[in-house]
Amino acid sequence: MAAVRRYLSSIRTDLLAACLEFVGTILFLVLGMGGIQAAAFSTHMEAAVEEAAMPNYPQALNQFASVEQLLYISVSMGFALLASAWLFFRITGGVFNPQVSLALLLSGCISPIRFALFLIAQLGGSIVASYLLRVLTPGPLFVNVGLGPNVTKAQGVFVEAIATSALVFSVQMLAAEKHRSTAIAPIGIGLTLLATHMFAVVYTGAALNSARAFGPAVVSGFAGDHWVYWVGPTIGCLISTTLYSTLKQCVTSSPTNDSDIIAMQS
Amino acid sequence: MAAVRRYLSSIRTDLLAACLEFVGTILFLVLGMGGIQAAAFSTHMEAAVEEAAMPNYPQALNQFASVEQLLYISVSMGFALLASAWLFFRITGGVFNPQVSLALLLSGCISPIRFALFLIAQLGGSIVASYLLRVLTPGPLFVNVGLGPNVTKAQGVFVEAIATSALVFSVQMLAAEKHRSTAIAPIGIGLTLLATHMFAVVYTGAALNSARAFGPAVVSGFAGDHWVYWVGPTIGCLISTTLYSTLKQCVTSSPTNDSDIIAMQS
Amino acid sequence: MAAVRRYLSSIRTDLLAACLEFVGTILFLVLGMGGIQAAAFSTHMEAAVEEAAMPNYPQALNQFASVEQLLYISVSMGFALLASAWLFFRITGGVFNPQVSLALLLSGCISPIRFALFLIAQLGGSIVASYLLRVLTPGPLFVNVGLGPNVTKAQGVFVEAIATSALVFSVQMLAAEKHRSTAIAPIGIGLTLLATHMFAVVYTGAALNSARAFGPAVVSGFAGDHWVYWVGPTIGCLISTTLYSTLKQCVTSSPTNDSDIIAMQS
Amino acid sequence: MAAVRRYLSSIRTDLLAACLEFVGTILFLVLGMGGIQAAAFSTHMEAAVEEAAMPNYPQALNQFASVEQLLYISVSMGFALLASAWLFFRITGGVFNPQVSLALLLSGCISPIRFALFLIAQLGGSIVASYLLRVLTPGPLFVNVGLGPNVTKAQGVFVEAIATSALVFSVQMLAAEKHRSTAIAPIGIGLTLLATHMFAVVYTGAALNSARAFGPAVVSGFAGDHWVYWVGPTIGCLISTTLYSTLKQCVTSSPTNDSDIIAMQS
Questions:
Q1: pLDDT tens per residue across span C153-170
Q2: Where is the chain membrane-spanning (chains A, B, C, D) (predicted)?
Q3: Cα B178 from Cα B36, distance rounded (Å)
């Protein structure tokens, strides 16, 4: 009886956490993708669209953005994550990202049930955010991700993988590890997303997060390269998790090294 | 007798707080709206004005801004709030926003008298800031807010509502709740305003604050959509307050969940 | 004898502090004004110069800058102060600004001797930084400040005064007052300078600091409006000091209010 | 026997630290230089390239960048260092820079063996990051550094020296010194790199780090001015180390001054 009650209570907590994850993902993506949509909507847009020789993917702004628009997108996404992760950090951890959830599952921080609920919440949140943006702004939605001109699918996969590994590693090092600056981890995680966008956004749109790629595709159509945004970030998650586990093992396997490494904190 | 004295003392404190709120609102809006005015005054302005086919609302820069000007406006408003909230945070809380005051009233943090005094201080501060900008800068004032091209009033109301709910929620989660990073709450609140501007500024001008919309309208004229900036942010305040109350109830109603949720802080 | 020794020791400390102030001012202004010089040197510059109808003040970039250059200048100056104030904060306080020194003198934080030594160090540091920039970069120096087109001298004085009062107030509230976030005061002060630049740079060049205006003028020539950059910031210093003193008096005169105001820290 | 074991254990720790330095350098430079490559790849690029009359150094973007691209580069490099230094800070100190290592060697923080291993790791990491960027992005690599138009080699050396001295000094003051804000030193160091880039990037490309200059040159060719990026940053390291040592001596030589200086922390 007690075991059943405990199980139900744990399910209830998981459901509550997933609800918050759903709301947080909507907030993150309405603000972040809303910035992308805004960058596409400025008066300089029409010229840029005509200039662009990309009739196949009209809905992915990153494919014909100017350097000003790339900066605008990076700042929007970075500070949207910084803000929404900060607001939800003390409650659910502010994940908003299936690949980050996967890393937390692999390192035993969350259970498989919570991972599954979070995945549904994140994909659902991204779809809702995309619909909201389509309804709330005039004109078509421009927040899809797509490979930039002349970027091959293999390049796209590895650009997504490397950038995602940095993002996941920031969650592992700043939030999952407990230390004096854990309280400001959302700042570090958001600014890591900003830094990764500055690199990746022009080549792949910088999803770094399958939910962020999935929602807009549901609303404005899947492109042939959509799988890139599932394979790439997942590889990145595995790279980061491998690095993180190796690191923890090296540090804990030899107590001498441990103190030495801590002494290295210059 | 003692009750009267206590009442008078409390009124005196409320008046002092309202005076500071008045000064702080002037500082916030002179800097933030000053940045908007500056973006309109740069040498590229004339071309942009001629380019724009918006004779009806000549005073709202957001309606014909380039992506560079949108970034400039967002950074100005975000860092103006970050700075002025930080300076006044330890004294009055640095509200500067009727919808944030309303949220504090609804959750019992401030009394109805203080809310009323703050409202007067905020509206007055915004009017003074707008007059200062008109007197201190050459040419007409460009800091009104207005709906962007093809943005319907319903869209405007909900863009304002969603963006305001994020701002109000940031005050509730970062400043009203006490925890280790409360001292740096103004950073989180200012950067949340930055993130919301990146999304909303091109569509509605991103008031997120009826006082910020009201002051410039007093100085350079009310547009037909002015009510949007009272209804939208107030809806946003209600959304955020509902979410915040639900959250507090869920967490406190079940002690088991509470600790569990806190354990989720990854 | 002991008094003489104490006096000499205090002079020695003052001289050491002034030397550091000299080095810190050079660092701040080489980085900050170096960013202005860099913005003027980009390949788009020539067009902007020809476009500009301002033959009288060819050396003040702010007088014909595009909105991108205004952002570049603001970010340069803001983060240059953030960085250099952070580096010198624990040693001399990282003032680099005669008007901030004056505020510290008026509130009794520094002695008149130290104020005088700091003034010499700040003016000298600004001259050295300006010479360094002229020697280290090709072409003429573009880092003078000057009133923007159609900006009257009275407007210039009050724009400088208001912006300087915000900067000085940030030093008084964040660094002079001791509290939990004092250690990160340089972040708040630097970002306040960023916010004030976003407003003031296009109208006056945003000196907010007579030393910052004086050094480049020594190197590339004084304009007829140079006095604006002594009168304006000094008025700003007095505004901020008056506000700060009033505030301290209100809070300490009535202990009841004090606790009440602290309870308002939401 | 024990001595040998201790020696071997210390070598093992050094090797582990060097491996992490290698990984961290790759992360820093893939993100930071990736942002430069992205700025070169935007659709406005072709016009800029044709506009530029610089056939000799086609691979150094900083030599013909617009002010928007300069901002993009500065933000990319600054936040890439902020993020990667934050992630690796608690483990190896997050150096990623031979001149910073040299400063740590000179002040006795690291041993000569560790310096040598770090140098190999940093140069190797930069080469790997450059190859990764060439393989992962379409078109030629644009991340070399080079002297801007009309910038002499002597100017280049001293621009690099001054900017590097600021960066090295930030590591010495924020990370090597222990105090209340040491935990957030990576923020200060990253933002110092941002501030130095705003100044130096248009004149020299702002290497401030011989490894950052060396890697791309191995991949896309050495220019005749490559030595500038070894001599300049090393001079900067010596300037900063001299200043830092003098400062420590002044403060510790006279206990009276010490407390006085600490009392100056306003």
A1: 999 999 999 999 999 999
A2: 15-36, 70-89, 101-134, 154-176, 183-207, 227-247
A3: 34
> Which pTM was predicted?
0.92
Bridge partners (DSSP) of residue A25 are none
CB contact under 8 A, D87 and A170: yes
What are B60's strand-pairing partners? B143
Residue A98 · residue A211 · CB < 8 Å: yes
Q: Is B65 part of any domain?
A: yes
H or E element in which residue C123 lies = helix C112-136
Spatial neighbors of B64 by CB under 8 A, at least 6 apart, are: A43, B48, B49, B51, B52, B54
- Exposed (0-12), middle (13-18) or buried (19+): which is D95, by Cβ within 10 Å? buried
Q: Which of A120, A145, A132 is nearest to A212 (CA)?
A: A145
Question: Which residues in C lie closer than 8 A to residue B10 (C-beta atoms)?
Answer: 260
Q: Are C113 and C8 in contact (CB under 8 A)?
A: no
Contact between C212 and C29 (Cβ < 8 Å) = yes
B chain contacts of residue A90, beta-carbon cutoff 8 Å = 173, 177, 179, 262, 265
Count how many domains chain A has: 1
Residue of A8, A68, A81, A86 to mutate for B, most B C-beta atoms under 10 A: A86
CA distance D264 to D255: 14
Residue C70 lies in a domain: yes
D262 domain residue, yes or no: no
ipTM over 0.90: yes
pLDDT tens for each residue of C14-62: 898 899 999 999 999 999 999 999 998 875 454 444 444 444 444 677 7
Domain that holds residue B110: 8-250
Round to whole Å and give the CA distance between D23 and A243: 9
Per the CB < 8 Å rule, is A136 touching B155? yes
Backbone angles phi, psi at D143, to 5 degrees: -105, 5
Cβ <8 Å between C266 and B176: yes
| Separation CA D252–CA D259 (nearest Å) | 10
- Contact criterion met (CB below 8 Å) for D162 and D197: no
A162: domain CATH number is 1.20.1080.10
Place of tokens 């930084």: C129
Residue D30 to residue D80: CA distance in whole angstroms: 9
Residue D138 lies in a domain: yes
